[in-house]
Structures are given as structure tokens and as C-alpha cells.
């Protein structure tokens, strides 16, 4: 059987690799490593189909090293032990270097990752791990400290276009229209392997229909809807929710809608997005526009009633409103300051005038005796009264912004502070 197109086009030399010029260009880290002749352990971190396995194979070829490959999805401790024994035999027999490549290394647990450490330390093999997940979270710190981390990027449109040309040249006299080329490249979403797999499907369809020119009609017939890359639990997911939150905070409704719909399109749970919108209303808008929190809650409830896709419109409405609303993180900051203060402060007693006095004994002890009922005071405000434990004074944790409703709140609090100062100068509390 003919091997897949992606395998037939796998680069056999470093100069044949498309993309990753930030690592492979002149003077860049991996180019320097190749040219030095001295391999070192590394983690290759990047999305699928950007050349992680190819680079590992080319390193083994360039360094004239034995290449041992493991897949963390399929392998266990037994496979690791066999790989180590094989490397030991090679070293004893010929002194030849070994490169041990572990694909999807983040899927190995801690003990499995630890099994590599003594052999990396001893120099038995050069370790190369490939991962689509952030190694800071998924790779043991001990292993991470012994390996350089290189970040691989999705292939650019130019990279993908050149890859299409290489595939068509391999297959013979088949041409592709410019709009079809752009559509085919877009279907890969930066993934070279996906591009070649899609190209192979299209070429097979063209051969069956005896077409020598690929157009958009053929692509639509053979590929259907192209799914965008979206990882529901990995970096792409958290990067996109971060972009959504920052777009709302930055008062950009178009960007907020873009990231929200990107996540809908990628399969994110709308209920999760509803919860995040509620959080944004509380954290970034707060009392500058209290309606924002209620609107976010209403949007979440509307989604529960309607489901997808109708309920998604309510979440979109909330995202736009939050982006356009006045912003304040004053309550968020005050809350965090008080939490930090209480975490390190002593346990201060409630002042007696604020204590409840439901029994005679408690009344005899003076609980609540000097409490001033605010509704009986002028303007329903007991000027000069204190409500914090003794010795705290007025720390001023909550600092209203001048934006939206919170501007009015700040003006009111300023007037009340003036009343407090006047009362205290006149001998009040």
C-alpha cells in the first residue's frame, strides 16, 4: 500500500522543514544545536502537525544517533525499561548515541516521567519530549529542569501554501485555483499534517472525477465543514477565555463577540461561558453598573431555558453589554485587600455596642447599649459612629472610581466622611 501523503512528504533535511524559523533560522537555537553536533535534551511544545516528530527524527539523523520512539498514549513502564535496555546495549556495543523521543509526554504520570531522570543525568540518551500541553503544568519540574523548552508555532498561510505546492508536485499535473488554495490552507488551521491529509482526500476525489484542476466546489464536496482547532481543556481553551475576558475589560464589544463566538464554534460549554460572564460583571464592572451582574445572570438563565443555539444570543447580548458598561474593579480590589489583611491579622473582638443582646445577662454586660439606630438619626446616618473593631480606624479599602454609578457612590461616601469628621470634632465618636 502507498504510504500516506504526510509520510511521503516528511522532510529528510532541516532545510525542507516549513515554518519554525524562530527556531530553525540562521543563528536560532535549534539550528545552532544541529550545527554544533552536540545534542541536548529538550521539550518541543506546540499544537498538532507543526513538526515536533519530524524535528526529533532529523536530530537523530543529523547526530548519527539511534532513534527510539515511544508514545505516552500507548506505552508504560515496561516500554520505558525496554528502551533503556536497548540504549544500554547500543552504548556498550558501539558507543553510539541514542535519542529517546517521547510523543505526548504530558500523558505519562509522575513516576513514569521520573523513570527517565537517572538516564538523562548519566547521558545514556538524549531525551526529546513532544507535547501539545503547557509543560509548566504537565511535565515534572525535575525533568523540566534538565531539558530546554522550545515553543513551536502553527504554520503560517505561506508555509501551508508552499506545502500544497510540494504535495501537488508529488502527485503530478494537478493545479489548484487561488481561492481553492486559500480555502484548503484555512481548513488546516496551521496544522501541516491536517493540511496534507485534506489534500490527499481532495486529490483522490479529483482522480475519481478525472479532474486536473482543484476548485472550491470540489473542496466543498470532499471536505465538508472544516473544524477549527479547539482544545476543550488545554492551552487553546484558556488562551481564548483569557482573550474574551480581556476584551470585555478593555471595552471592545467586537473583540468580545469574536472570542465568544470562536468558543461557541469550537465546542466550549455555553454554561461555562455564562459563568465567566457573571464573574466579569462582578470583577471588572462591579458597582460602576450594578445592572451588569443582573443582566449576566439573566443571560445565564435564558440559556438554561432555551439551550443552543437560541440561548447563545442572550450570552452574546450580555458580552456586548459588559464590554460597553462602565468599568470598576474597586470592590474586587477591596475584597482582596480585606482577605489578605484578615489572613494575617489577629482575631479582633466585635465592639460591645455592635453586639446582639438577646438575654438579660448580655444586656447587663452592656452589649448593644451604646448602639445608635441609624434610622433615628438625621438623614438616617449616625455621624461619627464606628463599626470596625477597636484599633482599626478607617482603613479605606474600598475606593470608588469616578465611573458610572460608582461615581455617585463615591460622592455620597465623601459627604458621609465629612459628617463623621464634623461629629468627631464636636466630641462625638
Mean pLDDT: 88
Coarse shape: elongated
The SSE string, one letter per element, is HHHEHEHEHHEHHEHEHHEHHHHHHHHH
Percentage of residues in helical conformation: 40-55%
User: Termini, distance in Å?
Assistant: 92 Å
Report the strand count: 7
Question: Can you describe this structure?
Answer:
- The chain has 429 residues and is of the alpha/beta class.
- Helix 14 (235-249) runs antiparallel to helix 15 (253-266), helix 15 (253-266) packs antiparallel against helix 18 and helix 17 runs antiparallel to helix 18 (310-324).
- It has helices at residues 5-8, 21-24, 29-36, 52-62, 77-94, 110-114, 117-122, 135-138, 141-144, 157-171, 178-188, 192-208, 216-223, 235-249, 253-266, 270-285, 291-306, 310-324, 330-344, 360-364, 404-425; strands spanning 42-45, 66-71, 98-103, 126-131, 148-151, 175-176, 213-214.
- The strands form 2 sheets. It has a 5-stranded parallel sheet with strand order 2-3-4-1-5, sandwiched between helices. The chain has a two-stranded parallel ribbon with strand order 6-7.
- It is 54% helix and 7% strand.
- The model has no long low-confidence stretch (mean pLDDT 88).
Amino acid at each position: 500500500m502507498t504510504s500516506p501523503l504526510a509520510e511521503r512528504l516528511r522532510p529528510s533535511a532541516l532545510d525542507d522543514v516549513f515554518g519554525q524559523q524562530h527556531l530553525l533560522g540562521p543563528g536560532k537555537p535549534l539550528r545552532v544545536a544541529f550545527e554544533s553536533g552536540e545534542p541536548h535534551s529538550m521539550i518541543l511544545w506546540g499544537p498538532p502537525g507543526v513538526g515536533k516528530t519530524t524535528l526529533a527524527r532529523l536530530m537523530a539523523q543529523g547526530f548519527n544517533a539511534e532513534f527510539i520512539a515511544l508514545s505516552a498514549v500507548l506505552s508504560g513502564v515496561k516500554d520505558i525499561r525496554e528502551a533503556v535496555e536497548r540504549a544500554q546495549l547500543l552504548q556498550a556495543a558501539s558507543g553510539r548515541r541514542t535519542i529517546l523521543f517521547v510523543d505526548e509526554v504530558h500523558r505519562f504520570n509522575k513516576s513514569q516521567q521520573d523513570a527517565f531522570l537517572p538516564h538523562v543525568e548519566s547521558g545514556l540518551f538524549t531525551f526529546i519530549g513532544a507535547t501539545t500541553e503547557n509543560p509548566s503544568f504537565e511535565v515534572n519540574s525535575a525533568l523540566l529542569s534538565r531539558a530546554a523548552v522550545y515553543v513551536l508555532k502553527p504554520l503560517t498561510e505561506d508555509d501551508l501554501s508552499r506545502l500544497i505546492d510540494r504535495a501537488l508536485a508529488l502527485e503530478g499535473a494537478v493545479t489548484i485555483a487561488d481561492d481553492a488554495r486559500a480555502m484548503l490552507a484555512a481548513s488546516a488551521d496551521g496544522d501541516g499534517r491536517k493540511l496534507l491529509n485534506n489534500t490527499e482526500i481532495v486529490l483522490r476525489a479529483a482522480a475519481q472525477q478525472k479532474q486536473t484542476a482543484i476548485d472550491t466546489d470540489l473542496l466543498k464536496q470532499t471536505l465538508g465543514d472544516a473544524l477549527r482547532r479547539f482544545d476543550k481543556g488545554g492551552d487553546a481553551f484558556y488562551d481564548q477565555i483569557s482573550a474574551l475576558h480581556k476584551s470585555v475589560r478593555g471595552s471592545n464589544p467586537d473583540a468580545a463577540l469574536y472570542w465568544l463566538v470562536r468558543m461557541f464554534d469550537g465546542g466550549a460549554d455555553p454554561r461555562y461561558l455564562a459563568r465567566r460572564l457573571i464573574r466579569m460583571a462582578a470583577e471588572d464592572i462591579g458597582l460602576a453598573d450594578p445592572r451588569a451582574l443582573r443582566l449576566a445572570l439573566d443571560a445565564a438563565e435564558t440559556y438554561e431555558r432555551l439551550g443552543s443555539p437560541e440561548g447563545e444570543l442572550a450570552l452574546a447580548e450580555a458580552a456586548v453589554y459588559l464590554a460597553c458598561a462602565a468599568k470598576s474593579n474597586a470592590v474586587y480590589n477591596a475584597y482582596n485587600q480585606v482577605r489578605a489583611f484578615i489572613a494575617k491579622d489577629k482575631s479582633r473582638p466585635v465592639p460591645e455596642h455592635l453586639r446582639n443582646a438577646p438575654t438579660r445577662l448580655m444586656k447587663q454586660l452592656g452589649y448593644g447599649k451604646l448602639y445608635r439606630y441609624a434610622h433615628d438619626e438625621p438623614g438616617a446616618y449616625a455621624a461619627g459612629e464606628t463599626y470596625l473593631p477597636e484599633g482599626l480606624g478607617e482603613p479605606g479599602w474600598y475606593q470608588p472610581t469616578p465611573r458610572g454609578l460608582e461615581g455617585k457612590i463615591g460622592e455620597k461616601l465623601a459627604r458621609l466622611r465629612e459628617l463623621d469628621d464634623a461629629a468627631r470634632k464636636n466630641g462625638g465618636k
